Each structure stands twice: as structure tokens, then as C-alpha cells.
Amino acid sequence: MESELPLDKFLTTYARSVQVMISSPITRVNADLLRLLPALKLVATPTAGVNNIDLVECRQRGISVTTSGSEFSEDVADIAIGLLIDVQRKISAADRYVRTRLWTSKGEYPLGFKLGGKRVGIVGLGNIGSEVAKRLEAFGCIVSYNSKRKKQALPYLFYSNVHELAANTDALIICCALTDQTRHMINKEVLSALGREGVIVNVGRGAIIDEKELVRCLVHGEIGGADLDVFENEPHVPQELFALDNVVLSPHKAALTPESFERSNRIVIANLEAFFSNKPSVSPFNG
Amino acid sequence: MESELPLDKFLTTYARSVQVMISSPITRVNADLLRLLPALKLVATPTAGVNNIDLVECRQRGISVTTSGSEFSEDVADIAIGLLIDVQRKISAADRYVRTRLWTSKGEYPLGFKLGGKRVGIVGLGNIGSEVAKRLEAFGCIVSYNSKRKKQALPYLFYSNVHELAANTDALIICCALTDQTRHMINKEVLSALGREGVIVNVGRGAIIDEKELVRCLVHGEIGGADLDVFENEPHVPQELFALDNVVLSPHKAALTPESFERSNRIVIANLEAFFSNKPSVSPFNG
């Protein structure tokens, strides 16, 4: 149903009895919105991220939140690895080189770097991070991680803070959620610890990195390169990055394939079915 | 030593007693050249490919050939996977989209395809092919292959001909050597069996694919996409490809990282040491 009413008017007129909301990643489910939906009991999002949802307010109002669970983890991990190979071996940059006919006129393109043996640090070893780690092992990378807590069952080296992780790795892959704790967690000090040869891959959320600082480091050659699927103010991308060959820019699409879309829609339906038949959620958010 | 003499004159003057030649990948070690080097006993190449060397003539003259062995296999496999992810998930094309500011002006970029569950066929399951297979398993791909003979020890599905392999896979990765048997092995029929959704990755040699036919198939949408590190007449790349977004072009650099360069030089030296002390080669070519 489309309506010409303003959202608040529309909701108070039609939505006072709504029990379930299916939210898109761009809907801001904040306190103002929740106040207009007094009967709401469930917010079901077909994505993995919940940074658009005020989780504290939901908890206080007894509203459950479900996500796509681990459904997109494989896609995100694939992109993370694709981006890492790209920046290490200069795939996109070399493609530009060939397409602009420089291979013929200027000769060989500079070499990239080997993946095997490189120390790769994963920030956030949840569903996505674990899939990334599994793939990195097949490439002969040495995997370490930072996470809220040490995962005893996993063989990777744990660092209790991200600064120490950055100081001991050749590449950082950001896979964690954006929360008040992780906002701008990758700051000047962490980037400086990563160093001139280090590269950073972000498939989490843009604001986990202090973007201004990242741009400064890249422009001044203070880190080796960056692969970014996410940015602080999407679709705005800092234009200083457009001129850099050690950067791969991806329009926030790590989690998106038609195959996963279909599966995540099925998960939303399963969560709705569970809700209306008083069963536990298929994929509750455990923040 | 540099000399202004023409090559044949130089060789007959100075090189009649030369026992060992270190050949570069662009040196054509053919019958004409070998005739000028009557004392030659070893051609040591710091690469994996030997298609620049007349192996029949070498065998007849009792000349051994050594290669870099499996030294570059990991690098080549990394690029093969990087290219496959790139074309499936549209990494280079999306990077172009962001850099030309289309994300801001035109909105979302089309989705790519999931890697997990895809049937990937490897053509040539030698050192490189095996490294590719190992990586594909970590991505949840279903691996099959075509090779001179079935490898009993490996769990992948074997197809005795490449046409049948193409008909039963979503992506083909060409990892075999260029020989008289494999020249233009990927022809019109094989590409047609791969089909409109199928993609092809070539990290072998350009002439293994009938390039004209490949370009025709890509231009007419008869196959889904291509990732090419090698071409028939390098550095010439068919210019019809420059306009296509479902193609990733790489300037023949799959095997090249500084790390592997250094290791392959060490292998050349080990082969020379073995030769001069009458020991078996470290990495003989077994054609």
C-alpha cells in the first residue's frame, strides 16, 4: 500500500496495531519510529547488520530483532578475499592498465605481492570472520584475530586489542559489526601500527575506520593499500581515493548475490512463521 | 657482456663451448639457435612454462631442460581465484563504477553471483591446477577436472575430454601447458558447451583458447564472462574486449611476485650446481 501521508501520520493512522516490521538496511528504526508503533513485537531484517536499529530501545520495549544470521557470511568472505587478492596482486589496477593500452605502449606492469606466508589479521571473528579465516588458510596465510573474546576452539593467534593485531600483521580484514565500541576503532594509531607495507580490507561498516585518517594515510603512503566495500557516508566516496592505484573501491555489495537474497528472504519468512506460531526465532540477533 | 655482433655471429664466435643456457621466457630456443650451440647440455629456465623451447630438438640433441618447478604454482593459483571472484562478483567493473562517480549519480551496481556451490572445472590438474582446486574447496565450489590422465588420489570428478567438462561446469579455469595438443583446445564447441552463464579463466597460455572465437562469443553474449591473464599475441589484446564489463584483463603476470622471483632464481642456481657436480636436476621438465 502506498500512501501520500507523511510517515508519522501514516503510522499513527494505520500502524497502531502492527506487530511485526520487516526493515530494510536503510530504514532507521530509532526511538521516534518505535514510539509510533506501540504494538510492535518483532523487527525482522533480511541483512546481517543491525546498525540501523536502536537495539537498546528495542530491548526496553520488549521487541525482538532477527537478522539473516550467517546467510550472507560466505558472500562477504568471498568479497573480502577477492579484494585482498586484488590489492596484493593489483588486479583492478592492472586491468585499467591494459584497458588504457599502457601494456602495449609502456611495457610490463609492476609486480604484486605474494599472498602465501603473509600474516593476516581478522577484526571480528564471528560468522563472516570465520569464513574469511577458512579461505585464508587455503592460500597459506598466517591467520590471527581480535575479537570480543578468545575463541578457544579455533587455532588462530588471538590479540586482545586491535592495535597489537595491526602491529603484527601484513593485512587487516575488518569483519566486525558497527557499534558504539567499534566506531572509529581503526584510528590513526592502528593505521600507523599497520605500517607502510600493510593493507586494510573493510567489509564491515565504513565508520569502523576513521575515514579521514585512512585517506590521509593512503595519500601520504603511510599504509600500503586499502580495499573498501563500505564508506562512512555512502554513496559518497572520498575523491582523493579515485587517483590511487593501491585502492580498490567497491559500492557496498559484499553481502549481495541473488542466491543469498533469495535465501535471506526465506529466513525472514521463517522468522515470521516462528513469531506467529509462538516458536523461537530462527536467527535472533545476539548483540 | 654486451656485443654489437648479430646473434648468430656472436654465438659462433663466443658460444661454441657454452654448456648451459639460462633462457628467459621471451627467448625462442629453437632448432636454429640450438644448432649454433653444439656443446649445450642444459637449458635452465626460471619459469614454469617451456613453450618457448623446442623440446623435441632438445631431446634429440641430449639437452636437458629445467624449469622453476612448482615454485610459481601458488602465485598462479592465487591470481586464478582472484580473477574468478572478480568476474563473478564484478570487483574490477564495480571499482570502475565507483571511480567514475556512477555510484552517486546512477545508484546501485548490478549484483554479482555467489561462488559457493558453483561447479568449477579445472583444465590441467598439475601443480597449478591442484593449488587452484585446494583454494576452490575453501569457497565451497564443486571441483571437477580434465587432465591427461585421471588422478586416483584426488577426490575431484574427472572428465576425459574438455568438451564434456565445459558442458558440466559453471566456470572453466585453464591451467595446462601450451603444447601441440592443447593449442586452440578451447574452441567454438567447448565455449558453446560452457554456455551463456559460463565464465572462463585463463592463467595458462593465450593460444590454448581460440582467441578470435572467444572474442566473438563474448561480444555476442554467448558465454558469461572471461578473466584473461594471457593472450595469443601479447601484449596485443583484442580491442573489442576493452568495452566489456564481464571481462577482466591482466597483463600476463599471474606467476610474478618478487617473492617467487627470488625463489625461482635460487632454483636456477640449484639446477646449475647440480649440473656441474653431475647430480640430478632439482626441477627437470617432464613433458
For the record, what is the CATH homologous superfamily label of the largest domain in chain A?
NAD(P)-binding Rossmann-like Domain
What is the assembly state of the chains in this entry?
A: homodimer
Global shape of chain A: globular
β-sheet strand percentage of chain A = 5-15%
Computed Rg of chain A = 21 Å
Largest interface: A-B, 53 and 53 residues
Query: What is the CATH fold-level name of the largest domain in chain A?
Result: Rossmann fold
What does this structure look like?
2 copies of one chain form a homodimer. Chain A has 287 residues and is α/β, with parallel strands linked by helices. Chain A contains 11 helices and 10 strands. Chain A has 2 domains: 84 residues, Rossmann fold (3-Layer(aba) Sandwich); 177 residues, NAD(P)-binding Rossmann-like Domain (Rossmann fold, 3-Layer(aba) Sandwich), CATH 3.40.50. Helix content of chain A is 36%, strand content 13%. Chain A has a 7-stranded parallel sheet with strand order 6-5-4-7-8-9-10. Chain A has a 3-stranded parallel sheet with strand order 1-2-3. In chain A, helix 4 packs across helix 7. Chains A, B: Pfam families: 2-Hacid_dh (PF00389), 2-Hacid_dh_C (PF02826). Chains A, B: One of its GO terms (biological process) is photorespiration. Chains A, B: GO terms for molecular function: glyoxylate reductase (NADPH) activity; hydroxypyruvate reductase [NAD(P)H] activity; NAD binding.
